[in-house]
Amino acid sequence: MKPSRRKFAQMAAGAVLAPLAPRFGWAQVSPTSQHVRVATGLLATWQSTAWLGAEAGVFKKRGIDLRLPAIAVGGPEAAAGLIRGDWEFAHTGSVPVAEEVLKGRDVVILAMPTADFPKSFVMTRKEITQLAQLEGKKVGVLTETGQTSTATRITVQKAGATATYLSLIRFDRIYAALASGEIDAGALPIDLRFAGQIRYGWNAFPMDSFDAPSVFATTRKQIVSDRPLVMNVMQGFVETIHLFKTRPDVVVPLLQRYVKIDDRKAAEELYAFRVPVFEKIPRPSFPQMQTLRDYLASKYSNAGSLQEADIADPSFIDELERSGFIDQLYAAAVK
Description:
This protein has helices spanning about 5-15, 50-55, 75-85, 95-100, 145-160, 170-180, 190-200, 220-225, 225-245, 250-260, 265-275, 290-295, 310, 315-320, 325-335, and strands at about 35-40, 65-70, 90-95, 110, 120-125, 140, 165, 185-190, 205, 215-220. By secondary structure, it is of the alpha/beta class. The protein has a 5-stranded mixed beta sheet, sandwiched between helices. The protein starts with a helix and ends with a helix. Residues about 1-30 have low confidence and may be disordered.
């Protein structure tokens, strides 16, 4: 670990927490908009929170002009863009964040919007009924080195097949390539699994890998430079999760647009599956920290010393819980 990252951690720990609006609700709107950029690693429901909040007007009501200049750029690129300053926040995987930290770079997890659940599958054409049949076949993945792509390779290799992998960057492109016959199999999220099975008769094989929850991240530098802005974004983020869990009339049509599902019934089923997965209190936590260390140990000699505090800052979610912000949101919803 490089001293510069430790210095960021110490500075962030000493920063004064911005006072929260007294009654919260939609909170105070700034006289001028605060411009915020967010990237997502995947085009998937579990990385949709910022987009949903922007489209539903949650962030706008908080005086935040939230834009998503990079959707589904892959987990590693979403994390790398934070370091370059291309965007201030990112939905990505916990593995890309941990990798950047082990390289001595500045990325930190603020929240885990969902609990862990089986979310990625190797989907094959209907005539391919066993993964071993992918020997010499083409398999679509997101990127060369991302968490989902690595899981795809592991799953296929464990089945005894040596395949050719094509980086297609986005799940919707993988889906289209599999539908057109350009590839024989592909990595797809549960969002698209059922659509592919119903429409094309594809077969689904759960991925065999360490599959940690997705995360919402920023940099410690960003926290030190403008902690009030980070808190404002996190309030909007938590409010959007509340919206997701309580307003299907708003969220289902938005999900149809985001995940590109034409069938309303399929979108409603996807929504119903997702509601209990989203966390009321999205605190970053790592009960499987040793599993994460073991997963990274073959690439990073310092992985064995990795701690939760190295990759996550739960102080924003902690403060939102202690202040009563989250409880007030849900109490208002049941009145």
